[in-house]
Amino acid sequence: MNDLGDHARRLRSLPPSCGPVRLIAVDGHAGSGKSTFADRLAAALGGAPVLRLDDLATHEELFAWTDRLRAQVLDPLSRGEAARYAPYDWTARRFGPPRTLDPAPVVLIEGVGAGRSAVRPYLAGLLWIEGESEASWEQGRLRDGPGLSDFWDGWTVAEHRHFADDPSYPFADAVIRRMPTGYMWLDGPRPTAVTSRIVTDSEA
What's the chain's average pLDDT? Predict the structure, then answer.
């Protein structure tokens, strides 16, 4: 149930989806635990690169980052080339020095909207972190503290609007449930051949 190593092996067995890369999205509501899960899955994958969508979004473009993602990351990876993107500095409110993202066998893309319609054609799999929006947002507010309460007020409105217009959950191959000692992988709402290679029947 909680062995990420077994799931990592299944993900590596998926067909490449973006050039030589198996691009795996980790989506869910803000505060649901996506970053922690992605870090643990990346470690189980032997140090797979993780692209944080927080590095592509900005204060003015919370969800209008798809063109930047395609030009800086998806197009180069689809050609088997290293991607170079400039991460956004949320304190300085400007883009910082470029980072390189190599076309590894598996690359994780983590963040709210990682499974949106503009990204799905490049994905080998879409994982959704289970959690209701209000509960997840409250966890995020507690994590970030009162200093970011104004940001969260604006974020929750923007996230609600995004998922209303462009939902990810209906297309998830697996739903990830946090457990006291790890994670349970459940069948997602999309019944595809990919799902059976990501989640075994015994875990649903």
Answer: 88
103-130 b/e (C-beta count within 10 Å ≥ 16 → b): bbebbbbbbbbbbbeebeebbbbbbbbb
Residues 6 or more apart from 86 whose CB is under 8 A from it? 72, 95, 96, 97, 98, 99
Q: What is the pLDDT of residues 14-30, one digit of tens each?
A: 999 999 999 999 999 98
Axis crossing angle, helix 4-12 with helix 34-44, rounded to the nearest 10: 70
CA distances from 192 to 13, 53, 122, 172, 173 (A): 15, 26, 16, 10, 7
Q: What are phi and psi of 107, to 5 degrees?
A: -125, 135
**Could you count the other beta carbons within 10 Å of the beta carbon of residue 181?**
6
Backbone angles phi, psi at 93, to 5 degrees: 60, 45
